[in-house]
Amino acid sequence: MAASEHDITNGVDLGIGAAEAFELISSPDGLERWFAEEVSIEPVVGGRFTFAGRGAYAPVSTTLTGFQPDQLMSWDWPLHQVVGEVTLTVLPKDEPGECRVEARCNFPSWPLLPRARELVDDLWRFHLGNLKTLSEGGDGVILPDFSDPALEVRQTIYIEAARSRVFQALLDPTLLARWTYGEPVVEARQGGRYSYGWAYEHDGKQVAGGPTRILELVENERLVTDWPDWRGDASNDGQKITWLLEDCGSGTNLTLIHDGFARASDISDFPFGWSGFLEMIRDVCVS
Question: What is the average pLDDT across 236-244?
Fold first, then answer.
């Protein structure tokens, strides 16, 4: 399918070779570990490709439009009454044992639903995040139920530090800066301003990313903030971030809950981003 304005490409760098990466993106055993719970595939052009169950946005039975071993696989992708095409390409890198996998999604017109481009983009951000996690050992791969209207990101990490220290890492601007890499501003009260100090450009628009205010605050126990749409879409509101702190032995269990998604696909690559932030918070607290 020729390039058009209804075209999205996402990519991820992997610390594995091209042949190993192609096995993960083209075999049932590989795909069932990061893409969808149930997969069958005839690995030839014109062969059937079906996927369903957890991880699949919707059950699909379709046809392979391209198959080149160790290089690419493509298929027709019917999505909300519009048939597009997905192409997964494996690109070797200069360093041996490394490659890049790119997912290109092309449609003759966007599927028939609000924020269709964002849905496609978010789904492939999620899938590629899973693929990268799998290539790094698999701890953290998830196959969600995209039919669940209350899908959330929930992660817990143990930190060998007192609750007061962990809570400080969420509220002290100096400590926040060490794991958000921004210029945080904090008014430590319910309704107070709470910003990571993030600013970036998306689709030609300047966005002030991250949270903006504190919704709830219970010292050393609970912090809840808002979470505006990361693309700067004011119409996509309602997400929030909850941090819960509980004693655990000589340390603290810190739980992150990201919920309030307008639709399940909005989970995007948040599970993988928050996993990294939790590890950085732990490092800040024990240093």
Answer: 95
The Cα angle at residue 137 between residues 135 and 139, in degrees rounded to 5: 115
Specify the length of the chain in residues: 287
Q: Are 50 and 60 in contact (CB under 8 A)?
A: yes
Contact 175, 277 (CB under 8 A): no
- Output phi, psi for 258, to 5 deg: -110, 115
HSE, CB side, 13 Å, CA atoms: give it for residue 200: 11
| Residues 226/236, Cβ–Cβ less than 8 Å | no
Beta bridge partners of 257: 154, 242
- The region of weakest confidence among 28-32, 94-98, 179-183, 208-212 is 94-98
Domains of the chain: 7-135 (3.30.530.20), 153-286 (3.30.530.20)
Give the pLDDT score at 4: 64
Q: Looking only at Cα atoms, what is the longest distance across the chain?
A: 60
Residues 6+ apart with CB under 8 A from 84: 1, 6, 76, 77, 78, 105, 106, 107, 108, 111, 120
As given in the structure block, the two tokens for residue 159 are 């930190």
What does pLDDT average to over the chain?
96
Q: What is the DSSP string of 241-274?
A: EEEEEEEETTEEEEEEEEE--SSGGGGTTHHHHH
Residues 6+ apart with CB under 8 A from 42: 48, 49, 64
Rounded to whole angstroms, the Cα distance separating 62 from 165 reads 53
